[in-house]
Amino acid sequence: PQQRSTVVGMDDPQAMVEVRFSPGGQRVQVRRGTRLYDIVRSLDLPLASSCDGTGVCGRCGLRVLSGADGLSPESKLEARRKRDNRVAPALRLACLTAVRADVEVKADYW
Hints:
By secondary structure, the chain is an alpha+beta fold. 15% of the residues lie in helices and 23% in strands. It has two helices and five strands. It has helices spanning 36-42, 76-84, and strands at 16-21, 26-31, 61-66, 91-93, 103-106. It has a five-stranded mixed beta sheet, covered by helices on one side. A hairpin with a 4-residue loop joins strand 1 (16-21) and strand 2 (26-31). The termini are far apart. 23% of the residues are buried.
């Protein structure tokens, strides 16, 4: 059988994307669809959270410096948690946000 070549694109869950963290400059390649929360924890970067990443507390807000379109769209749940917990609208909750393309983020307390 003849093998076909495939193009790795936005709909390929196996695609790797780069996440950059400022101001430290750390970079990591992760599988598309990985939660920001899991990426930050795997790098031992500080991340506020009292709910262990279950989407309740609203403390894991990250500021997107570039590549906002490379994140999963804000869900109704994320918008509600941000509103309920008085999280700035510009922040994304790491536990409820997955990376889909290259992005750069920071926590305001790093």
